Automatic annotation (TrEMBL):
Organism, as annotated: Mucilaginibacter corticis
Protein name in UniProt: Crp/Fnr family transcriptional regulator
Residues annotated as domain Cyclic nucleotide-binding: 27-103
InterPro entries hit by this protein: cNMP-bd_dom, cNMP-bd_dom_sf, RmlC-like_jellyroll
Superkingdom: Bacteria
Length: 181
């Protein structure tokens, strides 16, 4: 499946716009309409929303991954999230008409990818309800160590739903626990 997607993606190269951008570049503002699929060749991106003046990070994306504000993109509605680079990044933007054409050409072959993404989000949702912030941080350490190394701590704290101070306490507690072994 991935091979077919890459092959098809290359067929749409003439429609893609390459962006070389710095860290903290806003790619989509909350409330704007999403008109592009964003592919990350190099760098890191986060999605977030504003909650009473405070950013709440929803997700992180890295090299070889793509994203869009799906609700906005598919429903031609204002985006409930913003998209911003975390690091200097090389991105490719594919406009909505070509994305929809590509999706139509792939058809049912996209279903496993969509199901995999849905399962991922469901696991995150359940973890947010069931697990403590410390358990969620430990999961990040185990399952996504590159995130811990590349993403600023205040974004990780926001993603975990805690303050930077609370994250520092968790990290300190985990470091002390390792020293006792």
């Amino acid at each position: 499946m991935l091979y077919k997607f890459r092959e098809l993606w290359e067929q749409y190269q003439s429609f893609q716009r390459r962006l070389d951008v710095g860290a903290k570049t806003l790619l989509l503002e909350e409330g704007q309409r999403s008109e592009h699929y964003i592919y990350i060749e190099k760098g890191a991106v986060r999605t977030y929303f504003n909650n009473n003046g405070e950013d709440k990070t929803v997700q992180f994306f890295f090299e070889g991954e793509g994203l869009m504000a799906i609700e906005s993109f598919m429903n031609d509605a204002p985006s409930p999230i913003a998209i911003e680079t975390i690091e200097p990044s090389v991105l490719y933007l594919l406009p909505k008409p070509q994305v929809l054409e590509m999706v139509a050409r792939l058809g049912a072959q996209l279903v496993p990818l969509l199901v995999q993404r849905q399962i991922h989000y469901m696991h995150e949702f359940v973890s947010f309800i069931r697990d403590t912030p410390e358990q969620r941080y430990q999961q990040l350490l185990t399952e996504r160590p590159q995130l811990i190394l590349r993403v600023p701590q205040h974004y990780i704290a926001s993603y975990l739903g805690i303050s930077k101070v609370h994250l520092s306490r968790i990290k300190s507690k985990l470091a002390k626990g390792k020293r006792h072994f």
